[in-house]
Amino acid sequence: MTTLGYKLMAEEHDPRALVRNLVAAEAAGFEFSAISDHFSPWVEEQGHASFAWSVLGAMAQATSRIGLMTAVTCPIMRYHPAIIAQAAATLAILSEDRFVLGLGAGERLNEHVVGQGWPGFGERHDRLGEALEIIQGLLTGELSNYRGRYLQLDHARLFDRPQRKPPVILASGGPEASRLAAHKADGLIATEPKPELVEAYRKAGGQGPCYAEISVCFAPSQEEGLKTARHYSRWAVTGWKVMAELPSTEAFAAATEHVAPEMMAAQVPAGSDPKAFLQAVEKFQKAGFDHLILSQIGPDQAGFIEFFRTGLAPALKRG
């Protein structure tokens, strides 16, 4: 059975709008939500980058049913994993166990701001493994000291810790990350409908939920939707190998200068025909993902939420 979530793009909306959009999404029937956690937008046109954890606190108080999640937080540089564990524990309490902690290896764009450079892929993977051990250990109350190659913990303890540990979900773009999720996390999250990601996770012993994020653009027409997608989300065309390395909004603007609206069609279902959206959902379902996060690109969140309530949700339930 597929569980449907709503994406809160903190790069495209100010913090007050994010809270309002979540309240509307809860009323429309979304079962959970996921917020991005970035220091910078990808491109200048997006225009926002509020502190996700402050927004999550407001969201926990403004809603009563819908699940909350980070998609995803990087715990290897900009944040120390002990701080993320403390934040996750606090959110779990404030939301009465509605919080899921999504983690990933991050991007240069957001992590280099603290002046520690940006390590290569191998070191990032090792740092993430150490961070997972620290976060999981603090959330269970079983760890207070840690000496890794890159990360340390000195007599740490979470004094406000929920009775039920919040699930920790790990982002994967390849089999190695999927195996790490199976060994050190409680679930998986991805952005591409690749069955090999889920297969690697399951073969390595992973038994938790498999989340995926699907970018969409509801609009009066496909043409208008693709223009909106190009304006706000052309950065995604570069792919994760590039996205992880570019340092600034100016770099993303240069890398995507020649992206045309029609190039977005391969990645983003656009327009107002539910069939295109349902086909995208089906691809992820067939790949083995059971928690799907719909990410509406652009300012028309109210139109998309109503489209979900009256068109998409009934069709998905019938399917």
From TrEMBL:
Q: Which domain of life is it from?
A: Bacteria
| Lipoprotein recorded as keyword | no
Q: What class of enzyme is it?
A: oxidoreductase
Q: Which SUPFAM superfamilies does the UniProt record give?
A: Bacterial luciferase-like
Instruction: Give a Pfam family name.
Output: Bac_luciferase
Query: What keywords are annotated for this sequence in UniProt?
Result: Oxidoreductase
Q: What is its EC number?
A: 1.-.-.-
GO molecular function ontology, one term from the record? oxidoreductase activity
Residue intervals of the Luciferase-like domain: 8-291
The protein in question is named TIGR03557 family F420-dependent LLM class oxidoreductase
- What lineage is on file? Bacteria, Pseudomonadati, Pseudomonadota, Alphaproteobacteria, Acetobacterales
